[in-house]
Amino acid sequence: MNRVVFITAPEIFRDEEYYKPKKVLEDTGIEVITASVKTGELRGRFGFKTTSMLLIQEINPNDFDAIVYIGGNGSVIFFDNHYALKLANDFFKQRKPVSSICIAGVILANAGILKGKKATVFIDGKEALIKGGAIYTGNPLEIDGNIITAKGPDVAEDFGKAILKSLE
């Protein structure tokens, strides 16, 4: 059975960017583990609650088949977080899917893994992607090799389907 780790802010993450891709994956039997900078209850922008089972520094990439960075205003705490950036690199080097939705794409840019890759992000992150060497497309969803990026909540379900397809 595949296992995927969702990196989620402790608060103000975008609810539907979390629960829609999670549902797509879990409906096919994939185990989704949520990780953050704290364990216990996490709260989304619109009141959705979930539970972090792992601290991001405890994540072993060998235990997971893909990593997903969830967007929303809260995700800015990961933009320069050593562990978040290292994990993106570790998964990328192992040729495992690395994905982000909304503003969380800035994490991938800051990790240095978007150089020469087509990518998209919520418009506020466009300059960070370009600075990180990405080929910014502005498309709702972008897949370039093992990197999957999505623009925002409107494509959260399609984002989940793209992650699912990458695991086949």
Keywords:
168 residues; alpha/beta; Rossmann fold; 7-stranded mixed sheet; 5 helices; 28% helix; 27% strand
CATH evolutionary superfamily:
Class I glutamine amidotransferase (GATase) domain
The SSE string, one letter per element, is EEHEEEEEHEHEHEEEH
Distance between the termini: 11 Å
Helix content: 25-40%
What CATH architecture would you give? 3-Layer(aba) Sandwich
Just give the CATH class. Answer: Alpha Beta
> Rg to the nearest angstrom?
14 Å
- In round numbers, the mean pLDDT is 97
Strand content: 25-35%
Number of domains: 1
Provide the spatial order of strands within the biggest beta sheet. 6-3-1-7-8-12-11
Low-confidence stretches: none
Number of helices: 5
Give the overall silhouette: globular
Say what the CATH topology is. Answer: Rossmann fold
GO cellular component, one term: cytoplasm
GO molecular function: peptidase activity
Protein name: Intracellular protease I
Pfam families: DJ-1_PfpI (PF01965)
Your description of this structure?
This protein is an alpha/beta fold and 168 residues long. Helix content is 28%, strand content 27%. It contains five helices and twelve strands. The strands form three sheets. It has a seven-stranded mixed sheet with strand order 6-3-1-7-8-12-11, with helices on both faces. Helix 1 runs parallel beside helix 5. The longest helix has 12 residues, at 15-26. It is globular. The mean pLDDT is 97. Residues 3-165 form the DJ-1/PfpI domain. Keywords: Hydrolase, Protease.
